Each structure stands twice: as structure tokens, then as C-alpha cells.
Amino acid sequence: MPTINQLIRNGRASITKKSTAPALQWGYNSLKRKQYPSGGSPQKRGVCIRVYTTTPKKPNSALRKVARVRLTNGFEITSYIPGVGHNLQEHSVVLVRGGRIKDLPGVRYHVVRGALDTTACLLYTSDAADE
Q1: pLDDT tens-digit map of 16-31
Q2: Dihedral sign from CA coordinates of 22, 72, 49, 90
Q3: pLDDT tens digits for 72-122?
Q4: DSSP states of 11-31
Q5: Long-range contacts: 97-104, Cβ < 8 Å, 24+?
Q6: Could you give the 3-state DSSP secondary structure of residue 82?
Q7: Is the per-residue pLDDT at 5 higher than 90?
Q8: Are 88 and 51 in contact (CB under 8 A)?
Q9: What pTM does this model have?
Q10: What CATH number labels 22-126?
């Protein structure tokens, strides 16, 4: 615990907030081929490099569907594919938003269903609900 004199001399260090979705904070200048801090985007477009399943952390058991995506700013991220069934494969163009999956380490993004090459989840459409 600091003394009063130490607080007067140095003060308290403010805690810097760390982004939960750092890949969405950067833009890309294609002329200079450089990334720059853009202030953040709600979503980013990317191309699937690999679509695969992975197992969650300890108390849970499943095969979670994830995709390795290269974003337009050059970042390569792992994003979760929500919902039941999907049509994604290599070279599919997807829209990615922030939002982590608690039981998958390193997965901090979600694929947006119904945008670009991703079909909307059939389970949630009104036709499927009526049956």
C-alpha cells in the first residue's frame, strides 16, 4: 500500500482497457500495404481459409463448428459459426462480428448468419417453426 507522499509524487496509474475483439480495431491501406488503427468497426468481411470442428474446454462436450477467416485488414482469426447446420466451406466470404465463445479458447468472433455467402439458420425461419 502506498504512502500519502508516494501518491502525491507518482499518483495512481490508470488501467488501460483492452479490446475484446482486437482484429476489428484495425483498417488496411492497400496502397501502402500497411495496417492502421481505425477506431473500430462493428463487423468485418473475410474469406474462410479452413472450416472445421473443435472440442470445448473441460466440463463441456461437443463438436463446435468454427472457421479460420482472413479479414480484409489482413488479420487471420478463428470465428464461431452459430446455429444448426451451415453451408460454409473454404473460400466462402463471411461477415464477422465480435463476441467470444466461453468454452472455446482463442475464439473471440462470430460469423453473422444470413450475410454474404452464409445462409440464415433454417431452424429459426418462420416456415420451419410452423411445421
Answers
A1: 999 899 988 999 999 9
A2: positive
A3: 999 999 999 998 888 888 999 999 999 999 999 999 999 999 888 888 877
A4: -PPPPPPPPS-GGGGEEEETT
A5: 97/24, 97/42, 97/43, 98/20, 98/21, 98/24, 99/21, 100/20, 101/64, 103/56, 103/57, 103/60, 103/64, 104/54, 104/56, 104/57, 104/64, 104/66, 104/80
A6: coil
A7: yes
A8: yes
A9: 0.78
A10: 2.40.50.140
| Nearest CA among 115, 98, 107 for reference residue 64 | 107
Give the integer Cα–Cα distance in Å for 118 and 79.
13
Contact 43, 21 (CB under 8 A): no
> Which segments within 1-131 are labelled E, that is strand?
26-29, 34-37, 43-54, 64-71, 76-80, 93-98, 109-111
Boundaries of every domain in the chain: 22-126
Joined together, the cell numbers standing for residue 98 give 465480435
pLDDT of residue 130: 56
Tell me: pLDDT of 127 over 70.
Answer: no
C-alpha span between 53 and 82 (Å, rounded): 12
